[in-house]
Design brief:
This protein is α/β, with parallel strands linked by helices. It contains 20 helices and 18 strands. It folds into 3 domains: 115 residues, Response regulator (Rossmann fold), CATH 3.40.50; 162 residues, P-loop containing nucleotide triphosphate hydrolases (Rossmann fold); 137 residues, Helicase, Ruva Protein, domain 3 (Orthogonal Bundle), CATH 1.10.8.60. It binds adenosine-5'-triphosphate (ATP) and magnesium ion.
Protein backbone atom coordinates (compact mmCIF):
# COMPACT_ATOMS: atom_id res chain seq x y z
CA UNK A 1 0.00 0.00 0.00
CA UNK A 2 2.69 2.49 1.03
CA UNK A 3 6.42 2.62 0.40
CA UNK A 4 8.28 2.74 3.71
CA UNK A 5 11.89 3.27 4.60
CA UNK A 6 13.12 1.32 7.63
CA UNK A 7 16.46 2.54 8.97
CA UNK A 8 17.99 0.42 11.72
CA UNK A 9 21.20 -1.48 12.33
CA UNK A 10 19.59 -3.97 14.71
CA UNK A 11 18.92 -7.15 12.78
CA UNK A 12 16.23 -8.55 15.05
CA UNK A 13 14.08 -5.40 15.25
CA UNK A 14 14.71 -4.95 11.62
CA UNK A 15 13.35 -8.34 10.56
CA UNK A 16 10.25 -8.46 12.74
CA UNK A 17 9.13 -4.95 11.79
CA UNK A 18 9.91 -5.53 8.13
CA UNK A 19 7.91 -8.77 8.01
CA UNK A 20 4.91 -7.25 9.82
CA UNK A 21 4.83 -4.25 7.51
CA UNK A 22 5.14 -6.39 4.41
CA UNK A 23 2.26 -8.53 5.64
CA UNK A 24 0.21 -5.33 5.52
CA UNK A 25 1.08 -5.01 1.83
CA UNK A 26 3.60 -2.21 2.34
CA UNK A 27 6.82 -2.10 0.35
CA UNK A 28 9.71 -1.81 2.78
CA UNK A 29 13.06 -0.35 1.72
CA UNK A 30 15.92 -0.97 4.14
CA UNK A 31 18.83 1.13 5.31
CA UNK A 32 21.36 0.78 8.14
CA UNK A 33 22.63 4.33 8.47
CA UNK A 34 21.86 8.00 7.90
CA UNK A 35 24.02 7.78 4.82
CA UNK A 36 21.99 4.84 3.46
CA UNK A 37 18.75 6.70 4.10
CA UNK A 38 19.90 9.88 2.42
CA UNK A 39 20.96 8.01 -0.67
CA UNK A 40 17.43 6.67 -1.28
CA UNK A 41 15.97 8.31 -4.35
CA UNK A 42 12.56 6.64 -4.66
CA UNK A 43 9.38 8.26 -3.33
CA UNK A 44 8.81 7.34 0.32
CA UNK A 45 5.50 7.59 2.20
CA UNK A 46 6.83 7.14 5.73
CA UNK A 47 10.16 6.52 7.51
CA UNK A 48 10.69 4.34 10.56
CA UNK A 49 14.07 5.05 12.00
CA UNK A 50 16.31 4.33 15.01
CA UNK A 51 17.49 7.30 16.99
CA UNK A 52 21.00 5.96 17.52
CA UNK A 53 22.73 5.02 14.28
CA UNK A 54 26.43 4.55 13.56
CA UNK A 55 26.75 7.86 11.70
CA UNK A 56 24.29 10.09 13.60
CA UNK A 57 20.78 10.42 15.00
CA UNK A 58 17.59 9.50 13.18
CA UNK A 59 16.32 12.91 14.20
CA UNK A 60 18.58 14.37 11.51
CA UNK A 61 16.42 12.68 8.90
CA UNK A 62 13.28 14.60 9.90
CA UNK A 63 14.40 17.78 8.16
CA UNK A 64 16.03 15.94 5.29
CA UNK A 65 12.83 14.09 4.31
CA UNK A 66 10.26 16.72 5.31
CA UNK A 67 7.21 16.53 4.78
CA UNK A 68 7.45 12.72 4.79
CA UNK A 69 6.37 11.54 8.27
CA UNK A 70 9.08 9.94 10.40
CA UNK A 71 8.53 7.51 13.27
CA UNK A 72 11.47 7.37 15.66
CA UNK A 73 12.53 4.36 17.73
CA UNK A 74 14.46 5.24 20.87
CA UNK A 75 16.08 3.21 23.65
CA UNK A 76 14.50 2.91 27.10
CA UNK A 77 14.97 5.95 29.34
CA UNK A 78 15.36 8.20 26.29
CA UNK A 79 12.27 10.22 27.02
CA UNK A 80 14.09 13.50 26.45
CA UNK A 81 15.11 12.36 22.98
CA UNK A 82 11.52 11.48 22.24
CA UNK A 83 10.35 14.92 23.29
CA UNK A 84 13.07 16.59 21.23
CA UNK A 85 12.13 14.46 18.21
CA UNK A 86 8.46 15.36 18.48
CA UNK A 87 9.36 19.03 18.76
CA UNK A 88 11.49 18.73 15.67
CA UNK A 89 8.52 17.32 13.81
CA UNK A 90 8.72 13.54 14.21
CA UNK A 91 5.33 11.99 13.53
CA UNK A 92 5.57 9.59 16.47
CA UNK A 93 8.13 8.07 18.77
CA UNK A 94 8.34 4.59 20.36
CA UNK A 95 10.63 3.17 23.02
CA UNK A 96 12.19 -0.21 22.32
CA UNK A 97 11.34 -3.05 22.46
CA UNK A 98 8.59 -2.01 20.15
CA UNK A 99 5.50 -4.02 19.27
CA UNK A 100 5.24 -4.28 15.44
CA UNK A 101 1.45 -3.88 15.76
CA UNK A 102 2.03 -0.38 17.19
CA UNK A 103 4.29 0.47 14.27
CA UNK A 104 1.66 -0.74 11.81
CA UNK A 105 -0.95 1.51 13.41
CA UNK A 106 1.41 4.49 13.47
CA UNK A 107 2.33 3.93 9.82
CA UNK A 108 -1.35 3.78 8.91
CA UNK A 109 -2.00 7.04 10.74
CA UNK A 110 1.07 8.68 9.25
CA UNK A 111 0.28 7.68 5.69
CA UNK A 112 -3.41 8.56 6.08
CA UNK A 113 -2.49 11.99 7.39
CA UNK A 114 0.19 12.75 4.84
CA UNK A 115 -1.87 11.49 1.96
CA UNK A 116 -4.83 13.53 3.21
CA UNK A 117 -2.67 16.56 2.60
CA UNK A 118 -1.02 15.47 -0.59
CA UNK A 119 -2.57 12.85 -2.80
CA UNK A 120 -5.10 10.39 -1.41
CA UNK A 121 -8.61 11.69 -1.93
CA UNK A 122 -9.93 9.26 0.70
CA UNK A 123 -9.28 11.29 3.82
CA UNK A 124 -9.47 9.61 7.20
CA UNK A 125 -7.54 7.44 9.58
CA UNK A 126 -10.10 6.00 11.97
CA UNK A 127 -9.97 2.22 12.20
CA UNK A 128 -13.00 1.50 9.93
CA UNK A 129 -11.52 3.79 7.29
CA UNK A 130 -8.06 2.25 7.48
CA UNK A 131 -9.67 -1.15 7.16
CA UNK A 132 -11.58 0.03 4.10
CA UNK A 133 -8.41 1.42 2.52
CA UNK A 134 -6.57 -1.85 3.16
CA UNK A 135 -9.45 -3.75 1.57
CA UNK A 136 -9.45 -1.41 -1.42
CA UNK A 137 -5.73 -1.98 -1.98
CA UNK A 138 -6.15 -5.72 -1.66
CA UNK A 139 -9.09 -6.11 -4.00
CA UNK A 140 -8.14 -3.47 -6.56
CA UNK A 141 -5.62 -5.53 -8.56
CA UNK A 142 -8.05 -8.45 -9.01
CA UNK A 143 -10.84 -8.65 -11.53
CA UNK A 144 -13.57 -9.84 -9.17
CA UNK A 145 -16.82 -7.87 -9.06
CA UNK A 146 -17.19 -5.60 -6.06
CA UNK A 147 -20.25 -4.40 -4.23
CA UNK A 148 -19.84 -1.17 -2.26
CA UNK A 149 -22.56 -0.44 0.23
CA UNK A 150 -23.14 2.43 2.58
CA UNK A 151 -25.49 5.28 3.36
CA UNK A 152 -25.81 8.21 1.03
CA UNK A 153 -22.81 10.52 1.02
CA UNK A 154 -20.42 8.07 2.68
CA UNK A 155 -17.99 7.97 -0.22
CA UNK A 156 -19.06 4.96 -2.27
CA UNK A 157 -18.19 6.58 -5.57
CA UNK A 158 -14.85 7.70 -4.20
CA UNK A 159 -14.11 4.11 -3.19
CA UNK A 160 -15.04 2.91 -6.68
CA UNK A 161 -12.68 5.47 -8.22
CA UNK A 162 -9.95 4.46 -5.84
CA UNK A 163 -10.35 0.77 -6.73
CA UNK A 164 -10.16 1.58 -10.42
CA UNK A 165 -7.18 3.89 -9.94
CA UNK A 166 -5.28 1.13 -8.15
CA UNK A 167 -6.23 -1.56 -10.67
CA UNK A 168 -4.37 -2.67 -13.77
CA UNK A 169 -7.23 -1.16 -15.79
CA UNK A 170 -6.42 2.36 -14.62
CA UNK A 171 -4.96 3.29 -18.02
CA UNK A 172 -8.55 3.42 -19.30
CA UNK A 173 -11.33 5.68 -18.03
CA UNK A 174 -13.74 4.08 -15.58
CA UNK A 175 -17.25 4.23 -17.05
CA UNK A 176 -19.96 5.25 -14.55
CA UNK A 177 -23.66 4.62 -14.92
CA UNK A 178 -26.35 5.73 -12.53
CA UNK A 179 -29.02 3.03 -12.60
CA UNK A 180 -31.57 5.08 -10.67
CA UNK A 181 -34.63 7.00 -11.67
CA UNK A 182 -34.67 6.52 -15.42
CA UNK A 183 -37.01 4.53 -17.64
CA UNK A 184 -36.01 0.90 -18.03
CA UNK A 185 -35.70 1.08 -21.83
CA UNK A 186 -33.34 4.03 -21.60
CA UNK A 187 -31.04 2.44 -19.06
CA UNK A 188 -31.05 -0.78 -21.05
CA UNK A 189 -30.12 0.97 -24.31
CA UNK A 190 -27.51 3.02 -22.54
CA UNK A 191 -25.89 -0.04 -21.01
CA UNK A 192 -26.16 -2.59 -23.79
CA UNK A 193 -26.34 -0.40 -26.88
CA UNK A 194 -28.73 -1.05 -29.72
CA UNK A 195 -28.84 -1.57 -33.44
CA UNK A 196 -31.15 0.47 -35.57
CA UNK A 197 -34.26 -1.63 -36.00
CA UNK A 198 -36.74 1.07 -35.10
CA UNK A 199 -36.87 -0.36 -31.60
CA UNK A 200 -35.80 2.96 -30.29
CA UNK A 201 -36.10 6.49 -31.52
CA UNK A 202 -32.43 6.46 -32.41
CA UNK A 203 -31.38 6.58 -35.99
CA UNK A 204 -28.09 4.75 -35.91
CA UNK A 205 -26.43 1.88 -34.09
CA UNK A 206 -25.41 2.82 -30.65
CA UNK A 207 -22.46 1.52 -28.67
CA UNK A 208 -23.52 0.75 -25.12
CA UNK A 209 -21.59 1.78 -22.03
CA UNK A 210 -20.69 -1.82 -21.26
CA UNK A 211 -18.86 -2.08 -24.57
CA UNK A 212 -17.27 1.31 -23.98
CA UNK A 213 -15.91 -0.05 -20.72
CA UNK A 214 -14.10 -2.91 -22.48
CA UNK A 215 -10.74 -3.45 -20.72
CA UNK A 216 -11.77 -0.95 -18.07
CA UNK A 217 -14.09 -0.85 -15.03
CA UNK A 218 -17.83 -0.25 -15.16
CA UNK A 219 -19.24 1.51 -12.11
CA UNK A 220 -22.92 0.71 -11.64
CA UNK A 221 -24.13 3.25 -9.12
CA UNK A 222 -27.43 2.63 -7.30
CA UNK A 223 -27.53 -0.95 -8.57
CA UNK A 224 -30.52 -1.62 -6.29
CA UNK A 225 -32.60 0.51 -8.65
CA UNK A 226 -31.79 -1.58 -11.71
CA UNK A 227 -35.04 -3.00 -13.18
CA UNK A 228 -35.40 -6.79 -12.93
CA UNK A 229 -35.36 -7.25 -16.71
CA UNK A 230 -31.96 -5.62 -17.00
CA UNK A 231 -30.70 -7.55 -14.00
CA UNK A 232 -30.88 -10.81 -15.96
CA UNK A 233 -28.94 -9.34 -18.88
CA UNK A 234 -26.33 -8.13 -16.46
CA UNK A 235 -26.11 -11.56 -14.88
CA UNK A 236 -25.16 -12.98 -18.27
CA UNK A 237 -22.37 -10.44 -18.51
CA UNK A 238 -21.07 -11.41 -15.10
CA UNK A 239 -21.32 -15.11 -15.78
CA UNK A 240 -19.85 -15.36 -19.26
CA UNK A 241 -18.71 -11.86 -20.18
CA UNK A 242 -21.27 -11.75 -22.94
CA UNK A 243 -23.81 -9.14 -24.04
CA UNK A 244 -26.14 -8.57 -26.95
CA UNK A 245 -27.06 -5.13 -28.22
CA UNK A 246 -30.77 -4.46 -28.13
CA UNK A 247 -32.35 -5.66 -31.37
CA UNK A 248 -29.40 -7.89 -32.22
CA UNK A 249 -28.78 -11.60 -31.81
CA UNK A 250 -25.04 -11.26 -32.18
CA UNK A 251 -23.08 -12.08 -29.02
CA UNK A 252 -20.40 -9.63 -28.09
CA UNK A 253 -17.69 -10.54 -25.59
CA UNK A 254 -16.41 -7.79 -23.35
CA UNK A 255 -13.75 -7.68 -20.69
CA UNK A 256 -15.09 -5.40 -17.96
CA UNK A 257 -14.66 -5.31 -14.25
CA UNK A 258 -17.92 -4.54 -12.47
CA UNK A 259 -17.94 -2.27 -9.45
CA UNK A 260 -21.46 -1.72 -8.10
CA UNK A 261 -22.71 0.53 -5.32
CA UNK A 262 -25.92 0.75 -3.36
CA UNK A 263 -27.37 2.45 -0.32
CA UNK A 264 -30.09 -0.23 -0.13
CA UNK A 265 -29.93 -3.45 1.82
CA UNK A 266 -29.75 -5.72 -1.23
CA UNK A 267 -30.25 -8.88 0.76
CA UNK A 268 -33.53 -7.53 2.05
CA UNK A 269 -34.49 -6.64 -1.53
CA UNK A 270 -33.64 -10.21 -2.54
CA UNK A 271 -35.96 -11.58 0.14
CA UNK A 272 -38.76 -9.33 -1.15
CA UNK A 273 -38.15 -10.47 -4.74
CA UNK A 274 -37.01 -7.00 -5.79
CA UNK A 275 -33.46 -8.01 -6.63
CA UNK A 276 -32.28 -11.21 -8.30
CA UNK A 277 -30.69 -13.56 -5.83
CA UNK A 278 -28.27 -15.00 -8.41
CA UNK A 279 -27.12 -11.53 -9.41
CA UNK A 280 -26.71 -10.56 -5.77
CA UNK A 281 -24.38 -13.49 -5.15
CA UNK A 282 -22.45 -12.80 -8.34
CA UNK A 283 -21.94 -9.16 -7.39
CA UNK A 284 -21.32 -9.71 -3.75
CA UNK A 285 -18.12 -11.73 -4.13
CA UNK A 286 -16.47 -8.90 -2.26
CA UNK A 287 -18.51 -6.41 -0.28
CA UNK A 288 -16.94 -3.20 0.91
CA UNK A 289 -18.85 -1.15 3.43
CA UNK A 290 -18.45 2.62 3.69
CA UNK A 291 -19.03 3.49 7.34
CA UNK A 292 -21.41 6.34 8.18
CA UNK A 293 -19.67 9.50 9.37
CA UNK A 294 -21.23 9.24 12.85
CA UNK A 295 -19.16 6.05 13.32
CA UNK A 296 -16.00 7.89 12.24
CA UNK A 297 -16.03 10.63 14.85
CA UNK A 298 -12.26 10.94 15.02
CA UNK A 299 -12.17 11.71 11.28
CA UNK A 300 -14.74 14.50 11.36
CA UNK A 301 -12.34 17.32 12.18
CA UNK A 302 -9.68 15.92 9.83
CA UNK A 303 -12.19 15.84 6.99
CA UNK A 304 -13.52 19.28 7.91
CA UNK A 305 -9.99 20.66 7.80
CA UNK A 306 -9.25 18.96 4.48
CA UNK A 307 -12.41 20.50 2.99
CA UNK A 308 -11.54 23.84 4.58
CA UNK A 309 -8.14 23.75 2.85
CA UNK A 310 -9.80 23.04 -0.49
CA UNK A 311 -12.49 25.68 -0.16
CA UNK A 312 -10.07 28.29 1.17
CA UNK A 313 -7.98 27.83 -1.93
CA UNK A 314 -10.95 27.74 -4.28
CA UNK A 315 -12.48 30.89 -2.81
CA UNK A 316 -9.15 32.60 -2.19
CA UNK A 317 -9.91 33.14 1.49
CA UNK A 318 -6.60 32.25 3.13
CA UNK A 319 -6.08 32.08 6.88
CA UNK A 320 -9.58 30.90 7.81
CA UNK A 321 -9.68 28.44 10.70
CA UNK A 322 -12.25 26.47 12.67
CA UNK A 323 -12.88 27.54 16.26
CA UNK A 324 -12.59 24.93 19.01
CA UNK A 325 -16.34 25.18 19.63
CA UNK A 326 -17.02 24.48 15.96
CA UNK A 327 -14.77 21.41 16.02
CA UNK A 328 -16.63 20.13 19.08
CA UNK A 329 -20.03 20.82 17.50
CA UNK A 330 -19.05 19.11 14.24
CA UNK A 331 -17.87 16.06 16.15
CA UNK A 332 -21.05 15.88 18.17
CA UNK A 333 -23.48 16.09 15.24
CA UNK A 334 -24.88 12.88 13.71
CA UNK A 335 -24.40 13.80 10.02
CA UNK A 336 -27.38 12.10 8.37
CA UNK A 337 -26.03 13.31 5.00
CA UNK A 338 -22.56 12.01 5.90
CA UNK A 339 -19.42 13.38 4.23
CA UNK A 340 -21.30 15.21 1.51
CA UNK A 341 -23.21 17.15 4.18
CA UNK A 342 -20.01 17.96 6.06
CA UNK A 343 -18.40 19.26 2.88
CA UNK A 344 -21.40 21.46 2.15
CA UNK A 345 -21.46 22.84 5.69
CA UNK A 346 -17.79 23.80 5.48
CA UNK A 347 -18.22 25.30 2.03
CA UNK A 348 -21.08 27.52 3.18
CA UNK A 349 -19.28 28.48 6.37
CA UNK A 350 -16.20 29.64 4.44
CA UNK A 351 -18.36 31.58 2.03
CA UNK A 352 -20.35 33.37 4.67
CA UNK A 353 -18.11 33.75 7.72
CA UNK A 354 -17.12 37.29 8.48
CA UNK A 355 -14.14 36.64 10.76
CA UNK A 356 -11.03 34.64 9.95
CA UNK A 357 -12.27 32.11 12.51
CA UNK A 358 -15.32 30.04 11.65
CA UNK A 359 -17.63 30.20 14.63
CA UNK A 360 -20.74 28.29 15.57
CA UNK A 361 -22.92 31.01 14.09
CA UNK A 362 -21.37 30.41 10.65
CA UNK A 363 -22.40 26.76 10.52
CA UNK A 364 -25.50 25.23 9.05
CA UNK A 365 -28.31 25.42 11.57
CA UNK A 366 -28.85 21.71 12.21
CA UNK A 367 -25.21 21.31 13.00
CA UNK A 368 -24.94 24.18 15.40
CA UNK A 369 -28.11 23.22 17.09
CA UNK A 370 -26.93 19.69 17.74
CA UNK A 371 -23.54 20.92 18.85
CA UNK A 372 -24.75 23.57 21.21
CA UNK A 373 -27.51 21.55 22.75
CA UNK A 374 -25.11 18.65 22.98
CA UNK A 375 -22.83 20.70 25.23
CA UNK A 376 -25.54 21.63 27.65
CA UNK A 377 -27.93 18.74 27.52
CA UNK A 378 -25.89 15.67 26.74
CA UNK A 379 -26.30 13.51 23.70
CA UNK A 380 -29.48 14.58 21.98
CA UNK A 381 -28.50 14.13 18.37
CA UNK A 382 -31.58 12.23 17.36
CA UNK A 383 -33.82 15.15 18.22
CA UNK A 384 -32.39 17.28 15.45
CA UNK A 385 -32.57 14.85 12.58
CA UNK A 386 -36.07 15.68 11.38
CA UNK A 387 -35.93 19.34 12.31
CA UNK A 388 -36.60 21.63 9.36
CA UNK A 389 -33.65 23.76 8.31
CA UNK A 390 -33.71 27.37 9.47
CA UNK A 391 -31.73 30.25 8.10
CA UNK A 392 -28.79 31.51 10.14
CA UNK A 393 -30.73 34.58 11.12
CA UNK A 394 -33.67 32.46 12.26
CA UNK A 395 -31.28 30.42 14.29
CA UNK A 396 -29.67 33.47 15.78
CA UNK A 397 -33.07 34.72 16.83
CA UNK A 398 -34.05 31.33 18.17
CA UNK A 399 -30.88 30.95 20.15
CA UNK A 400 -30.94 34.43 21.63
CA UNK A 401 -34.59 34.27 22.58
CA UNK A 402 -34.38 30.87 24.11
CA UNK A 403 -31.28 31.63 26.16
CA UNK A 404 -31.44 35.31 27.01
CA UNK A 405 -33.17 34.75 30.31
CA UNK A 406 -30.52 32.37 31.60
CA UNK A 407 -27.46 33.99 30.01
CA UNK A 408 -25.76 37.34 30.21
CA UNK A 409 -25.06 39.15 26.93
CA UNK A 410 -21.39 38.27 27.33
CA UNK A 411 -22.18 34.58 27.67
CA UNK A 412 -24.66 34.67 24.77
CA UNK A 413 -22.06 36.29 22.54
CA UNK A 414 -19.46 33.75 23.61
CA UNK A 415 -21.77 30.80 22.89
CA UNK A 416 -22.57 32.23 19.49
CA UNK A 417 -18.89 32.80 18.81
CA UNK A 418 -19.30 36.53 18.14
CA UNK A 419 -18.28 39.69 19.96
CA UNK A 420 -20.69 41.53 22.29
CA UNK A 421 -20.66 44.40 19.84
CA UNK A 422 -21.66 42.07 17.03
CA UNK A 423 -24.44 40.59 19.17
CA UNK A 424 -25.76 44.06 19.89
CA UNK A 425 -25.60 45.00 16.21
CA UNK A 426 -27.36 41.84 15.11
CA UNK A 427 -30.08 42.23 17.73
CA UNK A 428 -30.71 45.75 16.46
CA UNK A 429 -30.62 44.74 12.84
CA UNK A 430 -33.05 41.88 13.36
CA UNK A 431 -35.25 43.79 15.80
CA UNK A 432 -35.51 40.70 17.95
CA UNK A 433 -38.71 40.91 19.99
CA UNK A 434 -38.55 39.89 23.62
CA UNK A 435 -41.08 37.09 23.53
CA UNK A 436 -40.85 33.35 23.10
CA UNK A 437 -43.99 32.39 21.23
CA UNK A 438 -42.27 32.43 17.83
CA UNK A 439 -39.86 29.66 18.78
CA UNK A 440 -39.98 26.23 17.25
CA UNK A 441 -40.26 23.34 19.71
CA UNK A 442 -36.93 22.07 20.91
N1 LIG B 1 -12.95 9.75 2.72
C1 LIG B 1 -13.24 10.87 2.07
N2 LIG B 1 -12.36 11.88 2.03
C2 LIG B 1 -12.64 13.03 1.39
N3 LIG B 1 -13.77 13.27 0.74
C3 LIG B 1 -14.69 12.30 0.73
C4 LIG B 1 -14.49 11.06 1.38
N4 LIG B 1 -15.58 10.29 1.19
C5 LIG B 1 -16.43 11.03 0.47
N5 LIG B 1 -15.91 12.24 0.19
C6 LIG B 1 -16.56 13.31 -0.56
O1 LIG B 1 -17.93 13.36 -0.14
C7 LIG B 1 -18.80 13.51 -1.23
C8 LIG B 1 -19.74 12.31 -1.32
O2 LIG B 1 -19.01 11.17 -1.69
P1 LIG B 1 -19.57 10.11 -2.76
O3 LIG B 1 -20.27 10.79 -3.87
O4 LIG B 1 -18.46 9.19 -3.10
O5 LIG B 1 -20.64 9.39 -1.81
P2 LIG B 1 -21.73 8.30 -2.18
O6 LIG B 1 -21.70 7.29 -1.08
O7 LIG B 1 -21.52 7.82 -3.57
O8 LIG B 1 -23.06 9.12 -2.05
P3 LIG B 1 -24.51 8.83 -2.72
O9 LIG B 1 -25.02 7.54 -2.15
O10 LIG B 1 -25.31 10.00 -2.26
O11 LIG B 1 -24.28 8.78 -4.19
C9 LIG B 1 -17.92 13.65 -2.45
O12 LIG B 1 -17.69 15.02 -2.66
C10 LIG B 1 -16.63 12.98 -2.05
O13 LIG B 1 -15.53 13.52 -2.75
MG1 LIG C 1 -22.82 8.01 -5.22
Amino acid sequence: MATLLLVTDETIINKSIQISLEQENHTVLMGESIHDAKSITSKIDCIICEHRLTDGSGIDLIMHFKPVPLILLVGQSALQIGILAMRKGAFDCFTKPVDPADIIKAVDRATATSSALVTDPMVGHCEPMLKLKRQVSRVAPRDTPILISGESGTGKELVAKSIHAQSKRSGFEMISVNCAARPESLVEAELFGHINKKLTAATSDHLGLIESADQSSLFLDEIGELPLGIQSRLLRLLEVGEIRRIGSTEKIYVDVRIIAATHHNLLEMVSKGEFRKDLYYRLNVIELICPPLRDRKEDIVILAEAFLEQVKNDLVRPGIQLSAAVKAALTKYRWPGNIRELRNVIQKAVMFCEDPIINIIDLNIQTIDAGLRGFSAGDQHHVTENRPTMSLEDYFQYFVLSHEEQMSETELAKRLGISRKSLWERRNRLGIPKRKDILPDS
